[in-house]
Design brief:
It is a single chain. The protein contains 17 helices and 26 strands. It is an alpha/beta fold and about 550 residues long. The strands form 5 sheets. Strands 2-1-11-10-12-13-14-15-16 form a 9-stranded mixed beta sheet, with helices on both faces. Strands 7-6-5-3-4-8-9 form a 7-stranded mixed beta sheet, sandwiched between helices. β19 and β20 form a beta hairpin. α1 packs parallel to α9 and α10 packs across α11. The structure holds adenosine monophosphate.
């Protein structure tokens, strides 16, 4: 091999904020603070405070590789922590406050966090939990002296007190680009949360990728509002990609309600934003009720869960936005696909375009995808065959953090098993049809529970629906439809089956229908199929 003659400059997270401070120094970061008022400063100001914070961390004895946790909303201090912790060689562990308390205790102990930085909102959450966190040496409340509450948290000090008096100059170390930079746990519906440990290299490469025009299209002209929390996969990598490109950052703090999100979008002239369907659903409801508009016609990226078509149409037709659907997962930093339509689709009719937009999108550069059947055989990309989705690439994890069991279950031949079941069509658009543990295995063939649920929810007598597999002596499993009825009088089961038969294959039709008052939900608001299966374990199908 003839080696090329190029510098082997390591990719580093610190270089992102350093670049922003030098070349986009006057560009703003605007945050809704937990204390209330809107806070604004520039990349230059931020970089100086990042230096102070790194000096304070060193004074506290933080060493390379140490895990330092945050429990915080999207705001400027959280942004500073991202850069100071990773930049000095330590690992920024973002904790999701929506996890159950015993899960929070589990991840803090599993990660071996030495310090926890927390927003005022979470003082009451951690006080009763601190006895279960023996490894944590101290707590820093992300506020100033004036707003510092009375608290029994060990060694509690306010953030501003911690950094005041420190120099804003820090000797940033040259780090190996493969060094761990941040840590994020996934909230699995079964078992303990599992840790994804990102590197400087994976973070910078992911930032390059998501900044491209086919994804977030970030530049100095962008005003980006990540309405997805910085405690959930680093707000999809946007706090890194914005400084890289000189985009203005708008951080919504603790308020995700329609009114608060709308206010920031208008006052800051947000022209691009990203979030999950729940947040955009609240915004749509607010806009419709208040009669307000989105004057800057932002691009709205929706991901994290599948949005209903009515949401995509609502933003596009009523508010003049462009909506893009994206898919990813914690283990992928997280972005894997984006659903922008190529010019070859310009002539499609409106309905045909929506049929593409509702799909999860095409793999972005750097992510390889394939779908396989139950025996691991690759399936065709014909938009019909569906199987488990496997991925690989430089920002996909190679193992879970100190968790051999989960690692053994998720990797095979250099591919990561996403646990999602999907189709991929001739144009490369991927569409999720189920989770692999929820798909119903009937006579060796797979039935998509999500497809039946979505169809059933179109029936006027149905408020919510879930489909689970019930053991069947001949077919192994057959679908059972569980329905929360819309009125006092549930629809007739035969009527529901008849309704479904217009849209799903005959052999997918549920063998039975059960009516319930409500469905069990997980901490993240999804239907808990696990609990539902446990509840209906003894249900006997009439066909068995
Ligand atoms: P998390 O790691 O918590 O972000 O969850 C990742 C999982 O969320 C994926 O494996 C999918 O099951 C689901 N997910 C993410 N984005 C989408 C989407 N656009 N449509 C449907 N499901 C999604």
């Amino acid at each position: 091999m003839l080696h090329g003659l190029m510098m082997d400059a390591p990719l580093s997270i610190h270089s992102l904020i350093e670049h922003a401070a030098k070349f986009h120094g006057k560009t703003e970061i605007v945050s809704r603070s937990v204390e209330g008022p809107i806070h604004r400063y520039t990349y230059e100001d931020s970089h100086a405070r990042v230096g102070k914070l790194a000096n304070a961390l060193r004074r506290l004895g933080v060493a390379p590789g140490d895990r330092i946790a945050t429990l915080a909303w999207n705001g400027y201090r959280h942004f500073e922590l991202y850069y100071a912790i990773s930049g000095m060689g330590a690992v920024c562990h973002t904790i999701n406050p929506r996890l159950f308390h015993d899960q929070i205790a589990y991840i803090v102990n599993h990660a071996g966090d030495r310090l926890i930085f927390l927003d005022l909102t979470f003082v009451a959450l951690l006080e009763p939990l601190q006895d279960e966190l023996p490894g944590v040496e101290g707590y820093v409340v992300m506020t100033d002296r004036e707003h510092m509450p009375e608290t029994n948290l060990k060694g509690a000090i306010s953030y501003e007190e911690l950094i005041e008096g420190e120099s804003d100059q820090f000797a940033w170390p040259d780090l190996d680009e493969r060094a761990a930079a941040s840590l994020c746990y996934t909230s699995g519906t079964t078992g303990n949360p599992r840790g994804a440990l990102f590197t400087h290299r994976s973070t910078v490469l992911h930032s390059f990728a998501i900044a491209l025009p086919e994804i977030f299209s970030l530049s100095t002209r962008s005003v980006m509002m990540p309405a997805v929390p910085m405690f959930h996969v680093n707000a999809w990598g946007l706090p890194y990609a914005c400084p890289m490109t000189g985009a203005k950052l708008v951080l919504p703090g603790p308020r995700y309600d329609g009114e608060a999100v709308h206010e920031l979008m208008e006052t800051e002239a947000v022209n691009t934003c990203a979030g999950v369907p729940t947040v955009w659903g609240m915004l749509l409801e607010y806009l419709r009720k208040s009669g307000k508009a989105l004057s800057h016609k932002p691009s709205v990226v929706i991901g994290g869960a599948a949005p209903p078509l009515s949401m995509i149409k609502g933003f596009e037709e009523e508010y003049g936005c462009n909506v893009y659907h994206a898919w990813g997962m914690t283990e992928m930093s997280p972005v894997g696909t984006c659903g922008k339509l190529p010019p070859s689709m310009d002539d499609l009719s409106k309905d045909e375009r929506y049929a593409v937009k509702i799909k999860q999108g095409r793999a972005i550069y750097g992510v390889e995808m394939k779908i396989v059947d139950g025996d691991g055989n690759a399936l065709p990309h014909d938009g019909k065959a569906f199987g488990e989705l496997l991925v690989r690439g430089p920002w996909v994890i190679s193992a879970y953090f100190e968790d051999e069991e989960s690692t053994a279950a998720a990797f095979d031949g250099g591919w990561f098993h996403t646990g999602d079941v999907s189709t991929i069509d001739e144009d490369g658009f991927m569409q999720i049809v189920d989770r692999s543990k929820d798909v119903i295995k009937s006579g060796g063939e797979w039935i998509s529970s999500i497809t039946i649920e979505n169809t059933a929810m179109g029936h006027p007598g149905v408020t919510e629906a879930a489909v689970i597999g019930i053991h069947h002596p001949k077919w192994d499993e057959r679908p059972l439809l569980v329905v929360v009825p819309a009125g006092d009088q549930p629809p007739a089961p035969a009527d529901l089956i008849e309704y479904l038969s217009a849209s799903v294959p005959k052999w997918w039709l549920p063998d039975d229908v059960v009516f319930v008052e409500e469905l069990p939900h997980t901490a993240t608001g999804k239907v808990s199929k696990k609990q539902l299966r446990e509840r209906l374990e003894s249900h006997r199908l009439p066909t068995a």
